[in-house]
Target: Cupin type-1 domain-containing protein
Amino acid sequence: MINITNLSVLALAAFGSVQALPQNYPSGTATAAAPAATDDQTQLFIDLLTAPTAVKRFQRLLVQGTSLLTGDALRALTVFSFNNATPNPGAKGGALKSANIETFPILTDLGISTTVAFLNPCGINTPHVHPRATEFLTLVEGKNLKFGYVLENGLVGPDKNPEIAGTLNKFEGTVFPMGSIHFQFNDNCDSATFVATLNSEDPGTSQIAQNFFALNDEVVNATLGFPREIDGKNIEEFRKYIPANLAQDIEVCLRRCEKRDDDKKDDYEKKGDYKNDDYKNDDYKNDDYKNKDGYEKDY
Model:
């Protein structure tokens, strides 16, 4: 069973990590750092955050002179596109794009933000917390999206499992309370898409495994209680193997999807759909017939 402990171990382990994935699996994308603000953008943020009233804030953003902006100028400030998510280096599990106070300034002081995630087959949104928001997540494409979260200390008795876990199918949703450690895992050979709305325009995100290993070596060793396995000499080796967020690393899922691909290829060949290796075109080299956006092409 997939749970937060399993996923944290996967994120920390040197073997079976994201770097060891078969090369024919698609390289996914995750939300990249926001571009540095220009002087004009910096002044805009200052003006919005210091506006004495809500209407003054909207005037600063949407009004020129005494008239409302029109056309493309108004659209650019009031419509957010979740298309064209850009990658974090090394992320293989999918793509994220967020509308928040930094990327969509009209959200300033509105207490809401939204992230859309496009998880690749076997993609994981690794365990993380939102320090300033509760999240409501809805699966809008796909099935069997596994999730889990752990609340604060003391929820259950000693030695009892505190993880709240479940599965979402299309158009089902769940909530992750503020500060809870939570994850999502697309345990499928097809892509999945979810929409996550949070009750803050600046919810923040902190990846558990990645940030834990950024702590002082002695603290990491003492917390894990494994000084023989992780010490000052090899802790840097472990750090190297921590995957980027939206890792793609569940071996059982990957093997299942590889087998499905092999079976499909065999079926195509038996039917004569591909003759004389014609299927090995630009989209199908070295057994890689995945397209840029999804998991496989339709032939």
